Amino acid sequence: MRYPKGYIPKNAGVYVRISEILPGTVDETAGVDRQTKDCLKVADLKRWGTSSHIYCDNDVSAYKKDVVRDEWEKLLTDLKSGVIDGIIAYDLDRVARQNRDLENLIDIVEETGIPNAVVTGEIDLSTDNGKMVARILVSIANKSSADTARRVSRQKLERAEAGEPPISKNRTYGYVYDFSATVPEEKKLLQEARKRMIAGESAYALCKEFNAAGRLPYSGKPWKSQNLIKMVTNPTHAGLRAFKGEVVGVGKWEKIFTVEEHAEILTAVENNEPYSRNTARKHLLTSILVCDLCGKGLGGKAPSYYCNVSRGGCGKIVRNMKAVDEFMISLTYKAIKMLPAVKDVPLDDDNAKEIERLERKIDEARNAWKAEMITLADFVDVRQDAENKIKALRKTSAKQAKLPVDDAQAFFNASVDQQRATIKRLFPVVGVKPTGAKGTRFHPDQLVFPD
Q: Of 6, 194, 86, whose CA–CA distance to 186 is shortest?
């Protein structure tokens, strides 16, 4: 439908937007409410009909290219379909700070002739002059946003380097809003999750347990693996101040983890099981048993563990799942009873000191490269060598830590995930040999335990 020149809208839509609600704002809708009131006043002066079609993008940027403005997109759709027959906004920069957004609106105006107006000035996108002025104003607004973003970014970096806590409209899990104290129950959950993930438990299993126990995030929504991983690996909890993903300072707030504990969980997430997916295994030993003939991990489907041909295995190994599980549980139970108690320390003093020395060595090499005292190739060599040594030290320390379940009786009653993590710590890989005769039942001699 094309509207005739001079058409007076009977059902105009109002568009209002605020780019950012500042932290600590008491009335978060005050800004858009004022814009709405002013838009409706102009509509009355023009004798435009309006209804309940108020399109509000509150706390939404029009400058950032990766931000989708849901209400803006809905307004464009409603303009095209005839749900509304006009548009009024407080100012052109509320509508667009990117040329592509303005051009999308201009295309609809050119196609339909739909009336449009802004509170702060007379810009008619149906005329050549109006379009020219609008394009100039949006280009100026875009440049202004870019300049502001650059200044704000620099200010945020300075705060981060000074160790000031991050400012956000959302509270950081584990801390009160201003970082003056920790939240005890949240701190306890983070520390527990970190220890159990270091020990080999999956984030999925922990989320399932926490949700069932009602230990939810402060939002009240159930835990998800990605969210839990993000929480336990957040450098903020180790008293480190990050900016755009890079640690740039030491924070002035209470630590929930030590720096060494933070490094441990990063290593676990990066190098161990893919915590970001649902990695909960249904069967006890599928991540431990391997075929002694071809070296492929055994798959599991009740009632058997088997070498899976579809995953590149030889298909020559099949074992009764219940029999193997019972033997490995019994063996691990006996092993736990025989082992001496281990103090739960993430890193011994010697390892911690050596890691600190290696990290200083990396920093010194970086500074030498910046000062053009060494070449980039030399700096990369030093860094890679030091990082490899740090990784080895952290693996050694992880082996010295407590078992996921270090009480023999508790091991019997533990979840499959906890039992598997404990078995895997003691017996990381267990080979399964062929029986040698068709129909031979499982016997412990068919298992191979590497030295």
A: 194
Residue with tokens 């939002």: 219
Under a CB-based contact definition with an 8 Å cutoff, are residues 52 and 78 in contact?
no
pLDDT of 167 above 90: no
Q: What integer pLDDT is reported at residue 112 of this predicted model? A: 87
How large is the C-alpha radius of gyration of the chain?
A: 31
Q: Could you tell me which CATH number the domain at 184-271 has?
A: 3.90.1750.20
Task: Specify whether the CB–CB gap between 199 and 423 falls below 8 A.
Answer: no
Query: Which residues are paired to 431 by β-bridges?
Result: 290, 448
Structure token pair of residue 251: 């924070």
Cβ–Cβ under 8 Å, residues 294 and 307: yes
Closest by CA to 266, choosing from 293, 238, 308, 301, is 238
Helix H segments across 113-202?
128-161, 184-198
Tens digit of pLDDT for each residue in 390-430?
Answer: 877 766 655 555 566 767 888 888 888 888 888 988 888 89
Give the pLDDT confidence of 281-332 residue by residue, as tens digits: 578 998 899 998 888 889 888 788 888 877 778 888 888 888 999 999 999 9
Residue 252, C-beta contacts closer than 8 angstroms, at least 6 positions apart = 163, 164, 165
pLDDT band at 270 (very low <50, low <70, confident <90, very high): low
Cα–Cα distance, 102 to 133 (Å, whole number) = 12
C-beta separation of 165 from 252 below 8 A: yes
Annotated domain spans of the chain: 12-146, 184-271, 289-343+403-448, 349-400
Helix axes 225-232, 184-198, angle to 10 degrees: 100
Q: What's the CA angle centered on 408, arms 405 and 413, to 5 degrees? A: 70
Quick one: CATH architecture of 12-146?
A: 3-Layer(aba) Sandwich (3.40)
Contact 250, 240 (CB under 8 A): yes
Candidates 319, 294, 324; CA nearest to 309 is 294
